[in-house]
Amino acid sequence: MNRVLLFLLILLLPQAVIAAPSEATPPNIIVIFCDDLGYGDLGCFGHPTIATPHLDQMAAEGQKWTQFYVAAPVCTPSRAGLMTGRLPIRSGLCSAKRRVLFPNSAGGIPDSEITIPELLKKAGYATGMVGKWHLGHLPGYLPHRHGFDQWFGVPYSNDMDRNKKGPKGWEAFLEPKFEYWDVPLHRDDEVIERPTDQRTLTQRYGDEAVRFIDAHKDEPFFLYLAHSMPHVPLFRSDPFVDRSERGFYGDVIEEIDASVGKVLEAVRERGLSENTIVIFSSDNGPWLEYGDMGGSAGLLRAGKGTTFEGGMRVPTIVWWPGTATPGVVTDLGATLDLLPTFCALAGVDAPDDRVLDGADISGRIRGEAPSPRDTVFYYRGDILYAVRSGPWKIHFRSRPRSGAKETIHETPLLYQLERDPSEKKDVAKKHPEVIERLKKIAEAHTATLEPVENQMVRVISKKKPNQQ
Ligand SMILES: [Ca+2]
Questions:
Q1: Structure confidence at residue 13 (pLDDT)
Q2: Which residues are placed with Cβ below 5 angstroms of ligand 1, an ion?
Q3: Which of 54, 134, 186, 395 does the annotation list as catalytic?
Q4: Distance 395 CA to ligand 1 centre (A)
Q5: For the purposes of burial, counting CB atoms within 10 Å of the CB of 81, is it exposed (0-12), middle (13-18) or buried (19 or more)?
Q6: What is the full DSSP assignment across 168-180?
Q7: How far apart are CA 177 and CA 26, in angstroms?
Q8: In the chain, which stretches have pLDDT less than 50?
Q9: Is residue 54 among the annotated active site residues?
Q10: Which helix H or strand E contains 406, and what residues bound it?
Q11: Rounded to an integer, what is the distance from CA 288 to the centroid of its chain?
C-alpha cells in the first residue's frame, strides 16, 4: 500500500481504533543477567557439551544477538552501565586502581544517577530485584534506594568475605564449601543468612523470581534477576551435581538454564508471554584464569578483565513472542541500550539532562529498523583501551589476560571483526585511514567526559581485600 492510501485510511478510521502506543499496556520486562558467563557457554552459542535446552528454545523463539556488548569487562562497572545507560566513567563507578567494589569499599551508585527501575516506576511498574547487586553495599547504595521496591540477594561477589576456615589459595575454589565465604544474603536491607548457603542460591533466586511474577501479574512489572553464578566459587544444588558432561562448570550452567525455563514457564502459565519481554545476558566474559572452573569465550579472544572481544561481548537472547521477530541478529547492541529501550517500551521519557551512551533498540527487536548502535567503547578501569565502529576495532592498549602487563600500541592494532571475530589478524598497515577515523571517534567521545567523584577508591577500612 502506498503512503498516501495509508494516510487516507488512517484519517477515515474511527479514533477509537487507532490506539497510540503510549495508551497500550506497557510490557512486563525481565532481565536475566549472569555473572562471568562466557560467549561460548550455551548450546545455542556453540558449546558442544553444556546442555541448555531452555535457553536454546528461548533463542529459537526469539532473537539471538551475536554482537552484543557490556559496558566493562568486570562486574561493578558493567552493572553500572546496565542500570544507568551510561558508561561507568560518567558515574565514577570504574577505576584502574580498584576495578570492582569490595566489602571494605565506601562508595556505590550515586543518588545523582537515574536507574532503569526509577524510570519505570514513573510508568507505574512494580520493580523487583533478585540476585547480586554489586553497586555499593552500604545502606545508601542498596537496591531499594535506587528504584527497586524489593530485593532478595547478595550485595557483592560470592568470592568476597573469604574467611579463615577454608584452605588457602586456589584449593578453596577447586572443592568449594559455602562456609569458606562469609557472604551475607539480604531480604531488602536485612541480612537473613550468613554465610549464604550458596549451593541453593540459583534455585532460590528462581523461586523468588516466580513469586515476584505471581504477585505482580496484574500490573506492569520489571524484574532484574542477576544470578551469582557462574562466578567462582561454583555451587549448584543436589539435582545438578555431576549432571553435565562439561563437569562442575557445566552443572552450574545447566541449573541456570533450568531456572530460565522456570521463569519462562511462569510467564507462559500466567498468560503473560505476549506482553513480556525477557532479555538474557551476562555481565562480562569468562574468568579464564580459573581453568575448567571458569567458562569459555568460544571463538572470541581472551576473557574477563580484558578489552578483547572475549571480555566484553556476551551471549544475549531477546524473547518476546509475537513482537520480537525470531532469528539471529548481527546488529550491534549493548546493555547500555536497555535503559533507553525500556523507556520507549514503557512510554517514559529517557533522561535528557545528561549524556546517555545507549540508544533505543526496540525497532530492531520488533524487526522494523536496524539497531542505531554503530560504536562500542572498551574501557579497562577508567582508561579507554579500544573502540569499535561498524566492523572495525582499534586497540590503543591491550592486555592478553586480566592481570597481565599492559601494552601501549604505538601503532594501534586494527581488526575487522566481522571477518575476524577472533582478533587474529592485525590489518593496521593496510588501513591507515580507518585508524585515523577511529582515533577521531575516540577523541570526540573523550571530549564528552566530565570529571566526577570516583566511587571505587574510597574505603571504610584499610584492611586489604583478598578477592576480586
Ligand atoms: Ca562478573
A1: 47
A2: 35-36, 75, 283-284
A3: 134
A4: 22
A5: buried
A6: STTHHHHS--GGG
A7: 43
A8: 1, 6-22, 466-468
A9: no
A10: none
A11: 18
- CB-based contact 35:229 (threshold 8 Å): yes
Grid cell of 152 as nine digits: 532478595
Distance CA 302, CA 306 (A): 7
- pLDDT value of position 16: 40
> How many A from CA of 2 to the centre of ligand 1?
50
pLDDT score recorded for residue 433: 98
**Cα angle value 213/266/116 (rounded, 5°):** 40
- The CA 134 to ligand 1 mean position distance, Å, reads 10
Query: Catalytic site residue 395?
Result: no
Please enumerate in sequence order all residues whose Cβ is within 8 A of that of 218, keeping only pairs 6 or more positions apart, or say none: none
Cell numbers describing residue 73:
569487562
Bridge partners of 376, per DSSP, are 388
Cα 309 to middle of ligand 1, angstroms = 15
**CB atoms near residue 447 (< 10 Å):** 7
d(CA 81, CA 9): 43
The pLDDT score that the predictor gives to residue 430 is 98
Give the separation between CA 152 and CA 113, rounded to whole angstroms: 22
Q: Which amino acid is at 389?
A: S
C-alpha cell at 402: 586480566
Cα-to-centroid distance, 276 and ligand 1 (Å): 26
Contacts of residue 126, Cβ cutoff 8 Å, sequence gap at least 6: 149, 215, 216, 219, 220, 221, 222
Name the catalytic one among 75, 94, 186, 231: 75
Q: Which amino acid is at 449?
A: L
Distance 454 CA to ligand 1 centre (A): 20
Q: Are 213 and 150 in contact (CB under 8 A)?
A: no
Nearest Cα to 301, choosing from 317, 285, 283, 322?
Answer: 285
Q: Which amino acid is at 87?
A: L
Residue owning grid cell 555473572: 35
pLDDT for the residue numbered 4:
52
The rounded distance, in Å, linking the Cα atoms of 155 and 107 is: 13
Ligand 1 center–CA 400 separation, angstroms: 18
Q: Which three cell numbers stand for residue 206?
A: 528462581
